[in-house]
């Protein structure tokens, strides 16, 4: 997508779990080359919104327009194929495999049985291509030296970066990250923010779910704040920081 082009147009998306309205008619847009932070306290509906956008959950109502096409109702696999790539709130990996293997076989990492089957089925050419791309993406985010370590031996910060490398292997038009900074030490958060700034500079569009306000503030172009399933406000980091409603939602004051 060209910088400034509308990549994602979320229109009144809604998700009910029985009587609970987890996401209540939330709308926002995201333009190519921007980083948007989806912010809010625990239980606000951020992950559910994410799962609606990526097709992991079906919508109760609303539309998700991705690069001009409504993708609501499509499978997560089909949405991914159209250029959306994501990481999950909890790292998904096979600890006994190397970083490179985890990234290369990303698409098959549902279970180790799936990976074994995938490796048996892959032809040599396809395998070579997957590993070359994984190597390229790991180098891109500064992990060239850790490629051959066992994924399980990495600290949480590098594990999160590994997941980003995996998500980048499909050359996505939109990268979605669910709380990538959660549980990281300050140094790891800074390293992660540097990688995300670099990806933005390279033209990537990123939607970032976070509840860590400080992490988001220096990094994103726009913020959408959620509380109790609804959109509380949308604006620049400065506007959001100055908002009494947002302070109240976060600090309860
Ligand atoms: P956040 O990511 O902002 O912390 P979530 O989107 O995970 O919030 O959750 C929003 C609300 O929806 C919470 O009240 C949560 O308990 C509820 N919820 C999330 N997933 C489900 C589900 N599969 N079934 C029932 N309730 C759910
Ligand atoms: Mg969440």
TrEMBL record:
Identify the residues that the record assigns to the ABC transporter domain, covering every copy. 8-253
Compartment(s): Cell membrane
Top-level taxonomy? Bacteria, Pseudomonadati, Pseudomonadota, Betaproteobacteria, Burkholderiales
The name under which this protein is listed is Branched-chain amino acid ABC transporter ATP-binding protein/permease
Point out the signal peptide segment: none
Organism of provenance: Ideonella livida
């Amino acid at each position: 997508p060209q910088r400034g082009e509308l990549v994602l147009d979320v229109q009144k998306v809604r998700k009910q779990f029985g009587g609970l309205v987890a996401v209540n008619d939330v709308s926002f847009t995201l333009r190519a080359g921007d980083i948007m932070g989806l912010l809010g306290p625990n239980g606000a509906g951020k992950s559910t919104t994410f799962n609606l956008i990526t097709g992991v959950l079906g919508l109760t109502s609303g539309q998700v327009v991705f690069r001009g096409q409504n993708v609501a109702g499509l499978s997560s696999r089909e949405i991914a194929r159209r250029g959306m790539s994501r990481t999950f709130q909890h790292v998904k990996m096979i600890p006994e495999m190397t970083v490179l293997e985890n990234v290369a076989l990303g698409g098959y990492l549902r279970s180790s049985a799936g990976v074994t089957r995938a490796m048996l089925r892959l032809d040599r050419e396809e395998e070579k291509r997957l590993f070359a791309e994984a190597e390229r993406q790991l180098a891109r985010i500064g992990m060239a030296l850790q490629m051959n370590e066992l994924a399980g031996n990495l600290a949480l910060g590098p594990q999160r970066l590994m997941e980003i490398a995996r998500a980048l292997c499909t050359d996505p038009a939109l990268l979605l990250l669910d709380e990538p900074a959660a549980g990281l030490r300050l140094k790891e958060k800074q390293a992660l923010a540097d990688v995300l700034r670099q990806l933005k500079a390279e033209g990537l569009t990123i939607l970032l779910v976070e509840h860590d306000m400080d992490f988001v503030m220096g990094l994103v172009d726009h913020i959408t704040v959620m509380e109790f399933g609804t959109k509380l406000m949308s604006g620049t980091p400065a506007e959001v920081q100055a908002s009494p409603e947002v302070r109240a939602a976060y600090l309860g004051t």
